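REVIEWER CHECKLIST
Item 1: Sequence provided? yes
Item 2: Single chain? yes
Item 3: Sequence as submitted:
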Amino acid sequence: LGTITQQELTAVRQQNGDTAPQPVGQSLPSNSAGTAVQEQAAVPKKILPPGTPKEQYKFAFSLVRRAEFGQATEALEEYIKTHPSDPLTSNARYWLGRTHYVRKDYRRAAEVFLTAYQSQPNGKKAADNLLRLGMSLAGMSKKKEACATFNKLKQDFPDSSVTVKKQ
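Item 4: Structure as written out by the authors:
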């Protein structure tokens, strides 16, 4: 959609001390220089309980419903990484974006919603992802890009739900 350039993402990551692009399925690196923290980061933390993908998704979503957004973010990222082809992964990506959005991390939310939309531009969450992408861009004061996203939403999904149209 041309809403966020790679150069803008790189600049923000460099300001935050990040050196490499982070795919949606990975946690952001720690800024601590301690070796114990670095060693701990090398071993991925498991937050999802054992079980079927559906049970794990339900667990991650329960964290969203309880507004435990930090843990929900970790659980959803782990779910996406562990089950990239599962039908519930599109929902997990959407809710991951929402965990960032509600904490006013609009840049990260926009990244997640854009990636989610690009991975399934005709999926059942595509219109929702475009809506939230536009809202995230507006939260970043990127009004022109937000309007372009809302226009794309209106053009590509004229029959979207009443809720999407209202928002």
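Item 5: Key structural point noted by reviewer: Confidence is low (pLDDT under 50) at residues 19-33.
Item 6: Recommendation: ____
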